[in-house]
Structure formats: structure tokens, C-alpha cells
Task: inverse folding
């Protein structure tokens, strides 16, 4: 394996789990998150010599992942199109999906707008500053602050609701 | 502040609530390398223009094959394949899970004279074999459920004229004709051919790396001439128990896959004087370097395990063995230690 490839594989092995988790939180879907990360890593591979020279390939990969997860749904030509009926056969569905659907916090996260969700994830999961978040999402710091605050409030309500329902 | 801490903890809980299998870096690298190769080729702009002029000239000369011996695949995809109504072209049209009615519609496009219904298997997949409901004495016919690339009559004629091409490009042409999926640009990850057996196995991966196709070309089908064979696809990002996955519960990116089939003969009084077998699959273990097959104490046949763990074999030999003996197929590491027993 070439030196370039070896370095890239080492990077992927170290970073992919974190990238997939971030992609999941921003996109709200594990399968889609995996696709997004695969695509981001593929793009990273093509740009690898340049990215490595500049330094911090993780930041590059994270930016690609967040932007893909954040704006993918806005572009109609990227949507999957149902092309035929699925046969009457039980699929091998992810057993965790049902559990996730019942998770109020995940449901609340999914209910946020794409930009709001991305702000929340970058600020409170990735622990990035307002400026770093604004830089990744290409918006103003004011937008990040307001979107993150609203998102935080929605999630706060979901957590309170869960507490209440558990107490009953 | 307390809110922020709590939300942060909740987000970490959500993100880490499921264990993840590692991504398949081999497929990722393969995809990246392919694109780099294409870019390098495109980068040679002037050279490409020159080659195009030469190619145009060459195409006007009769019986002049290209340097890499790619019979019948010159020209744009649009010249060689046409759209199939209601089916997306290329990779998207391969391994679609469709209803029997849709499979019937597509098979009518392929075999317009066939009036029989397909055997109802509660759903079909494009690029997979579907059988017609036959009665005893009926003429045999089959249908590989078409994808979205209908081959041109010229391409079909070329495939029928040369059902077992020497070159990989020629084999991919024939596989495309069989499946009605243009796989001429897919990456070959394993292949093998046996002239004595009259079979060739090719395993190819789609440009996105999400789909795999196994294509078996045959010249050993009794009473049949022209293009013969079978194809099968699997969507690697959505493998189910209907795929040749050895352990459907294993959702790792490189789960073991295997299909093998063959037979012995001639056999007299329980003793057979020969056997043949074809198969393909993927070894999950990254230590695997070869796959070997053998029957009883006869000679062994070995094929390499390629990139991504893929392998393909097809072999015929005259080992004498008891009729009740079955072949052994296993993957081995560099030291010759078995890492996976397939059968």
C-alpha cells in the first residue's frame, strides 16, 4: 500500500466513528449518516495531499460531513426516489430504529430545522465555539446564537417531558 | 449552563447508543483510486484529443480491434444501451427489489414472445434469474429480470457470437447483455475461467462501491449456443438473508459471503472420475490470501483473495473420488492456516 494510502487509512480508522456520530446527529438517520461519511471520506481521499499539507484533516472531514448532512435534504436531486413496490417480505430492519423512535430527545432533535440541528450539534456535542460553528455553516455568529438557543430550548422541553412521563 | 451540560450529555448518549462496525476502508480506497486514475487520464487533455482522433479513424476501419482487446464495447453507453421505460439506468437499476408484476413487465420487454407467467416468488430483484412457470414437456426459458440498460442489437449479436471472450472487457460486455445493466465500467475484483468446464466467473463492484455483481458465463449448457449464463447482484449496504451472506446477523462492512456449485461425473458404482465447481464470495478475514478447493485427497485448486476479500473460482479436474464425498472450500492466510471454512 502506498504511503499516501496508509496515512489515509490510519486517519480513517481513527476518525470515522466520531464523524459517523456527528453525521447521525445532524442528519437524524444512521444509514444516511454512513453514506454521508463514506462520501466525505472519498472526497477527503482525493484531496488528501493538500489537506494533509494544510493540517487538521479531521476539521476538513467534519466540515464536509456536517454540510452534507445539513443541506442534503434541500436539494431535490439528491433525494432517493421510490421506483417500485417492495415485495411482501420482512426486511432486516435495524432493530434500534423502534427504540430511537421512542426516544423523545432524538425525536425532538429530528424535529429541529436542519440549520438549528446543525448548530446544536456543533455547539453542544462537538463543543465548538460560536465562531467555529458559524464558519462551518457559513452563517453569521448571531444566527448561530439564536438557532442554538432555540434548539436548546426544544431539547430542554423534550427532556422535561421525558422526566414527567417517567414520574407518572 | 446546567442546561447546556445536560443537553450535551444527552447528545453524547444518543450518538453513542449503538455500536458501529468499522467502515470498509478497502472499498473506500478502491473508489478513490478509480477516480484518481480517471482524473489522471482526463488530465492528459491533448493526448485524449489525439487518441479520440485515432479512435475515430480506427472505428472506420473494419475488423480492427482496439489495443486492449475490448470487443464490442466501443462507443458511448448511449450507443450501446438504450433506456428501459420506468427503470433507472446504470447502477440504480441493478438489484432493485420489485414486485412480481413489475418483473413480469420487464421480462415481457426482454422476451416479447414468451406468454407464460413467472413463478411467483413474492417479489423479484433486477439482475437476478426468474423462472417461468413451466409444465412437463414445456420448452425451457428463463429471464434475468432486466435492469435499466437495454443492450443494442449489435451488442447482443456480438455477445452471441463470442459468448466466452478472452478479455475482461469482453466478459463485462456479455454480463451487461445478460443483466441489462451496463457493468462495462464496474471494477473487477475477482475473476476466473475454466475452459475444460466451459465457465467463467466474474465479480465486479459498482462505481459507488455499493453493489456487487456476480456473473457466470457458460459454454457448457447442453443443446444451447450463443450467450449463456447467469447474474446475481447484492447491495452491500443492505445485505439481507436473501443474499449469499453466511451469517445474516453479521452487519459488518466485510461480512463473509459465499456461493458455490458444481457436480461430479462420470460416476460408476459410487466412484466418480472427475468433478467441476464454480463459486465466488468474500472473506471477512483480512488475513486471507487464498481460497482453496479440493475433493477427497485429489489435487487442490487455489485462487487469490483480492482487494476487499473477493474471490472467484471455476475448475474442472479428473480426481477419482467416492460419489458421496463433497468438496472442501476454505480460505487460508499467508502461513497456510485456515481462516474460514466455506464448505
Result:
Amino acid at each position: 500500500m502506498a504511503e499516501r494510502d496508509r496515512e489515509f487509512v490510519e486517519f480513517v480508522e481513527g476518525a470515522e466513528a466520531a464523524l459517523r456520530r456527528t453525521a447521525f446527529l445532524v442528519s437524524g438517520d444512521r444509514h444516511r449518516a454512513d453514506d454521508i461519511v463514506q462520501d466525505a471520506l472519498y472526497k477527503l481521499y482525493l484531496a488528501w495531499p493538500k489537506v494533509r499539507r494544510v493540517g487538521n484533516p479531521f476539521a476538513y472531514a467534519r466540515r464536509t460531513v456536517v454540510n452534507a448532512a445539513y443541506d442534503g435534504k434541500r436539494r431535490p436531486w439528491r433525494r432517493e426516489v421510490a421506483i417500485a413496490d417492495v415485495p411482501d417480505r420482512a426486511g432486516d430492519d435495524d432493530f434500534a430504529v423502534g427504540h430511537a423512535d421512542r426516544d423523545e430527545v432524538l425525536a425532538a432533535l429530528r424535529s429541529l430545522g436542519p440549520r438549528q440541528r446543525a448548530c446544536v450539534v456543533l455547539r453542544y456535542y462537538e463543543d465548538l465555539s460560536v465562531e467555529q460553528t458559524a464558519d462551518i455553516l457559513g452563517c453569521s455568529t448571531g444566527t448561530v446564537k439564536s438557532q442554538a438557543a432555540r434548539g436548546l430550548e426544544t431539547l430542554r422541553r423534550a427532556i422535561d417531558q421525558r422526566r414527567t412521563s417517567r414520574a407518572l | 449552563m446546567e442546561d447546556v451540560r445536560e443537553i450535551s450529555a444527552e447528545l453524547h448518549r444518543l450518538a453513542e447508543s449503538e455500536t458501529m462496525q468499522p467502515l470498509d476502508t478497502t472499498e473506500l480506497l478502491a473508489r478513490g483510486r478509480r477516480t484518481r486514475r480517471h482524473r489522471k487520464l482526463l488530465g492528459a487533455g491533448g493526448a485524449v484529443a489525439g487518441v479520440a482522433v485515432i479512435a475515430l479513424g480506427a472505428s472506420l476501419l473494419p475488423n480492427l480491434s482496439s489495443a486492449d482487446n475490448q470487443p464490442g464495447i466501443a462507443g458511448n453507453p448511449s450507443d450501446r444501451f438504450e433506456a428501459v421505460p420506468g427503470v433507472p439506468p446504470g447502477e440504480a437499476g441493478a438489484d432493485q427489489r420489485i414486485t412480481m408484476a413489475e418483473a413480469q413487465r420487464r421480462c415481457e420487454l426482454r422476451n416479447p414472445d414468451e406468454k407464460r407467467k413467472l413463478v411467483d416468488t413474492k417479489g423479484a430483484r433486477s439482475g437476478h434469474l426468474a423462472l417461468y412457470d413451466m409444465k412437463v414437456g414445456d420448452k425451457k426459458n428463463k429471464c434475468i429480470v432486466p435492469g435499466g440498460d437495454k443492450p443494442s442489437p449489435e451488442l447482443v449479436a456480438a455477445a452471441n457470437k463470442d459468448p466466452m471472450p478472452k478479455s475482461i472487457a469482453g466478459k463485462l460486455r456479455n454480463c451487461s447483455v445478460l443483466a441489462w445493466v451496463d457493468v462495462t465500467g464496474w471494477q473487477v475484483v475477482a475473476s476466473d475461467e475454466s475452459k475444460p468446464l466451459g465457465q467463467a466467473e466474474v465479480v465486479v463492484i459498482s462505481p459507488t462501491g455499493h453493489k456487487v455483481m456476480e456473473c457466470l458465463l457458460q459454454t457448457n449448457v447442453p443443446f444451447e449456443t450463443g450467450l449463456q449464463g447467469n447474474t446475481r447482484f447484492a447491495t452491500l449496504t443492505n445485505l439481507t438473508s436473501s443474499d449469499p451472506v453466511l451469517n445474516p446477523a453479521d452487519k459488518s462492512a466485510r461480512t463473509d459471503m459465499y456461493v458455490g456449485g458444481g457436480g461430479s461425473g462420470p460416476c460408476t458404482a459410487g466412484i466418480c472420475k472427475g468433478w467441476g465447481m464454480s463459486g465466488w464470495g468474500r472473506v471477512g478475514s483480512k488475513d486471507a490470501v487464498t481460497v482453496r478447493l479440493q475433493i477427497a485427497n485429489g489435487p487442490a485448486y487455489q485462487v487469490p483473495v483480492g482487494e476487499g476479500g473477493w474471490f472467484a473460482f471455476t475448475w474442472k479436474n479428473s480426481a477419482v473420488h467416492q460419489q458421496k464425498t463433497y468438496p472442501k472450500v476454505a480460505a487460508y492466510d499467508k502461513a497456510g492456516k485456515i481462516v474460514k471454512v466455506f464448505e
